[in-house]
Amino acid sequence: MTQTTPLWEVFIRPRNGLSHKHVGSIHAADEVLALQAARDVYTRRGEGNSIWVVRSADIFASDPDQAGENFEPTADKVYRHPTFYDIPDDVGHM
Amino acid sequence: MALFDAVLELADDHLVLGHRLSEWCGHAPMLEEDLAMPNMALDLIGTARTLYDHAGRLEGAGRDEDALAYTRGEREYRNLLLVERPNGDFAHTMLRQLYFAAFMEPYWQAALSSSDSVIAGVAGKAVKEMAYHIRHAGEWVIRLGDGTEESARRMQAAVDALHPYAEELFEAGAETGVLPSREAVRPAWEASIARIFDEAGLRAPSVAYPQTGGRQGLHGEALGPMLAEMQALHRAHPGATW
């Protein structure tokens, strides 16, 4: 079935004001059936009020082999975090 | 008593179709439908429970929802022949669901203004559930009808097999002024089916001899074994709770 029925990634928004969050994937022939399948599989317990589906093949992902060069260089740059800076007491609340 | 009988007919339709759909659990052609069909079954069984409870109170003979669902035999069931039809292939199941939901959605719309507050309450919830069942089943009917040669052949075979059972939807049965007229729902049902068949490339056969009898308790041979399985636990252990 995986060969003939495309895979879709499902994103659900739990409530207004929050962002859609990835919850899993489903198989479906097209976008209409994908939304129905997502509704039936992932919203059975009141998980949300909006669904996005995206064809898995349309997602371009970073290469795990490049994880080192992508993400490790940030590890020693503590000055990028606001907590790195001492705020003088007389500044008050920022 | 007339209202008791009318509510019981509705409850039986929902329980029998709900049980039929639940038979797919663990056997559906794909995981997504393995969840979708029990979801729809639970909608129907939930409605059936409220209706049986209501019927039991109307009757006033001390029968609760379990007594009505589990201790009546085949001849006492008043459901449509359509809903007891065996699941067949996926095309048969989706078509049966479409025929029923396309009838119940406008029926519940009309029931929203019923003078019976339980019926109006059930209608408020069921109208949304039936709208989804029409969409879910309808989209499958369109894709199978307008799909491959094989899927189109099997979808049309389902239409040819089940269409003779459609007319019974509009049969008067034990109706009272408290519930909507079934005949009045016909134009909405026909419009839904025509729209979907048009997109699906399906033809409704002309039916010389509509199949009826469910409202009189005259059922096909498939209902008995289904009830036997559904009622076995309760009959072996009456009053058991879990």
Explain what this protein looks like in three dimensions.
The complex is a heterodimer of chains A (94) and B (242). Chain A has 94 residues and is α+β, with helices and mostly antiparallel strands. Chain A contains two helices and three strands, in the order E-E-H-E-H. The longest helix of chain A has 12 residues, at 31-42. In chain B, helix 2 (31-59) packs antiparallel against helix 6 (117-145) and helix 5 packs antiparallel against helix 6 (117-145). Chain B contains nine helices and no strands. The interface between A and B is medium-sized, with 14 and 12 residues.
Summarize the structure.
Chain A has helices at residues 31-42, 67-71, and strands at residues 7-13, 21-27, 50-55. With 94 residues, chain A is an alpha+beta fold.
Fold blueprint:
The complex is a heterodimer of chains A (94) and B (242).
Chain A: E1 7-13, E2 21-27, H1 31-42, E3 50-55, H2 67-71
Chain B: H1 2-22, H2 31-59, H3 65-70, H4 81-84, H5 90-111, H6 117-145, H7 149-162, H8 186-200, H9 223-236
Helix pairs in contact in B: 1-2, 2-6, 5-6, 5-7, 5-8, 6-7, 6-8
**SSE order of chain A, one letter for each helix or strand:** EEHEH
Residue-averaged pLDDT of chain A: 92
Name the CATH architecture of chain A.
Answer: Roll
Tell me the CATH topology of chain B: Ferritin
Give the overall form of chain A.
flat
Per CATH, which architecture of chain B?
A: Up-down Bundle
Q: How many separate structural domains of chain B?
A: 1
* CATH superfamily heading of chain A: Phenylacetic acid degradation B
Oligomer: heterodimer
Largest sheet of chain A: 3 strands, antiparallel
Distance between the termini of chain B: 32 Å
Strand order of the largest sheet of chain A: 2-1-3
H/E element string of chain B?
A: HHHHHHHHH
Helix/strand structural class of chain B: mainly alpha
Count of DSSP H/I helices of chain B: 9
The level 1 CATH classification of chain B is: Mainly Alpha
Spans of chain A of at least 5 consecutive residues whose pLDDT stays below 50 are none
Let me know the CATH homologous superfamily of chain B.
Answer: Ferritin, core subunit, four-helix bundle
Tell how many strands the DSSP assignment of chain B holds. Answer: 0
What count of domains describes the coordinates of chain A? 1
Protein name (chain A): 1,2-phenylacetyl-CoA epoxidase subunit B
EC number (chain A): 1.14.13.149
Enzyme class (chain A): oxidoreductase
Pfam family, one (chain A): PaaB
